[in-house]
Structure formats: structure tokens, C-alpha cells
Amino acid sequence: MNALDVSISIIIPAYNVEKYLKAALDSIEAQTELPDEVILIDDGSTDKTLAVAERYHFSIPYKVSSIENGGQGNARNLGVSLASSEYVYFFDSDDLLKKDFIHSIKNQIRQNNSPDIVLFSGESFNDSEYQGNRWVNYRRGFSGVFFDRAEFLQKASSHNALFCSPCLYVSKKSLWGAHGLEFGHNFLEDDAIFFPVLFSCSSFVVVDEVFFLRRNREGSTMTMVRNAKHVNGVLDCLNKTLSLYDSADFTSLERKVVRNRIGSFCMAYIVMAREANVALAYKKIFKIIIKVRSPVIALKIFAFMIRANESALVRYLSKNMKRFKSVAFG
Predict the structure, then answer these.
(1) Is 112 helix (H, G, I), strand (E, B) or coil?
(2) With contact defined as beta carbons under 8 Å apart, do 151 and 210 qualify?
(3) Of the ranges 42-51, 124-133, 185-194, 234-243, which one carries the lowest mean pLDDT score?
(4) With b meaning 16 or more CB within 10 Å and e meaning fewer, what string describes 78-116?
(5) 3-state SS of the chain: helix, strand, coil percent to 5?
(6) Based on C-alpha coordinates, what's the Rg of the chain?
(7) Residue 316 pLDDT more than 70?
(8) Could you read off the pLDDT of 230-268 as tens digits, one per residue?
């Protein structure tokens, strides 16, 4: 491939977004430099999402496929299998893109020797009917080119900039697929796959410029009331990150970052289980504390237990304190 030729496929999973889909597609068509193809996977919608998708006309190759409902991760995986570009971008069907997104990302790829991943910033905006108070700042807070993963992780961690949404990065297609990375089928699949993505990359470009606009709306996975699916999702995040922790050859800094990620997922599990009224797997949390061998994480988990009024787990950990101290604290 010519060094000046950069191709990007945009992959869009869509489920019951008839009200928002046209605006999302319009934000792609309005790009100052268009992507090389758009692939939309209708995930068994029960409204008019598929009809909206099929009526839309792009001036570039555009594929629409409809499947039985299998979740956003499954739809994205299918999109990857249909993509023909060197890079893929996963775009949500109810969000928007700034018009210079593709042009700017292609320039970053050209100027930086085809990095494995380009990460950028985003902003939230409220849908006109949204009554909630969710607001997330997706600013990276720094820019740079990194050929050392540990250096990238240190910089990103120091800026609290490890946002997991695949709408906030463009990556090489070669990282993905049946013999590479695949999204899971649970809720929070974005969180679960993010660290495996980062540890599959060896070159990183970060651009602290807003290209992605996330819509806060009623009924989305991001704003809905926590339920058992969220709890199963965060457990999947824990299992995948623990698997990475066991299998990868880390520097000490990388191990620290992954260990902190495990601690964050553990605390999220405690909170989500309480909100969803789901019983906690006490033994699993205890085993995690032993595995990561971090007094700081252990104390944070205890603090979350007390805050969440999980007296049963506190009693369980207290009962096993002798073993806990000998293993987790050395």
C-alpha cells in the first residue's frame, strides 16, 4: 500500500434507533473527507431502524446487514468480518461525529507511520428529551506519539484518560477478527475489550481533539437502571482483565496499571450488584484481593463494602483475615 493511502471502514451496530440514526449517518456523509466504506449491522431492531438504514444513500460503498438480535458486540464482530479497509472505527448509531474526523485521523495515520491505534477526545450532549444527570468528560488531556506501551499507559493514567469506548479510537483491522480480538456478548463489552486492545498494540497516537459527540438519552445502555445484565457485564470485564494479568509479560508499570484496572472493576461490581439487588460472589472478590497482592486495592474494596453496607462480605473477609494478610500482604 502507498504510504499516502489510508483506508477506514466505519462499523455501526444499530438497535431500535429510528429517531437518531439519520442524524448519525448524516454526520458521516458531511465529513470533509469521507471514509472508504460504511457497514451498518441492524441487530434485530423492532422499530423502523432497518428501513431508515436501507433508505439512506451514501456517495461511498455502504453495506447494510440485518441479523437476529445478538447484542452490540456480536454486531460489531460481524461488521469487522465484512470490512475491507486497513483501519476500522466503531461508531454508535445514536451519536454524532465532527465533520473533520476522518480527514484528521487519516492525516495522523499518514504522519505517524501507520500506528496500531489512534485515540482522541469526545464530548457529551443531552438529547432534547433526556431528563437524567449523566455527564462524562471524554477529554484525553494530552497528545503524543508513543512507541512504548508503558510510557503511553503512564501518561494516559496520569490524565485519567483511559476511556474505553471504541467510539474514541480508530484501530488496525488486523488486530480484530476470529484470530484476534472480538467483542463479547455481555453488557460493558467496551470495557472488557479495551485493555486487550491496548496490549495488542505497540504504537499509539493520542490526539486531544474532540471528534466524537456522545448523546445522553433515555433508554440507552449507558443511562438505564442497573440490572443483572450490568452485573454479568462487569464480571466479564473482571474475568478478561484477570486473564490478561495472568498471561501477559508485563513491565512493572504495566502490571500496576492492569492491577488498578482490576481493582476498579471489582469496586464497580460491588456497586452494580447492590444497585441491581444481585448477591455478591464473596469468594471471587477474596481471590482477586489475594491475586493482585495490593494493600491499597484491598483497603479500597473494604471501604466500598462499608459504603455499600455489604456487612456479609466484610464478615467473610474478616473471618479469613489471617489467610488474607499472609497472602495479599506478603
Answers:
(1) coil
(2) no
(3) 124-133
(4) bbbeebebbbbbbbbbbbbbbbebbebbbebbeeeeebb
(5) 45, 20, 35
(6) 21
(7) no
(8) 999 999 999 999 999 988 688 999 999 999 999 999 989
Reported pTM? 0.89
Length of the chain counted residue by residue: 330
Report residue 323 as a C-alpha cell: 489467610
Phi, psi of 213 (to 5 degrees): -120, 115
Q: What residue segments make up the domains of the chain, in order of their start?
A: 8-216, 228-328
- The answer to whether residue 325 scores a pLDDT higher than 80 is no
Considering 65-74, 288-297, 299-308, the range whose residues carry the highest mean pLDDT is 65-74
pLDDT in tens, 179-210: 789 999 888 999 999 999 999 999 999 999 99
CB 247 within 8 A of CB 297: no
Report yes or no: 128 and 216 within 8 Å, Cβ to Cβ. no
Phi/psi for 262 (5° steps) reads: -60, -45
pLDDT digits 0-9 by tens, 53-85 = 999 999 999 999 999 999 999 999 999 999 999
Cell 508513543 belongs to residue: 146
Looking up cell 474532540 gives: 210
Q: Quote the distance between the C-alpha of residue 241 and its chain's center.
A: 13
Q: What grid cell was written down for 253?
A: 508499570
Asked if 174 and 217 touch (Cβ cutoff 8 Å), the reply is: no
Distances (CA, A) of 76 to 12, 20, 69, 105, 158: 7, 19, 12, 20, 30
Q: Which CATH number fits domain 8-216: 3.90.550.10, 3.40.50.300, 3.40.50.150, 3.40.50.720?
A: 3.90.550.10
What is the number of helices (H) and of strands (E) in the chain? 12, 9
Tell me the residue type at 65. Answer: S
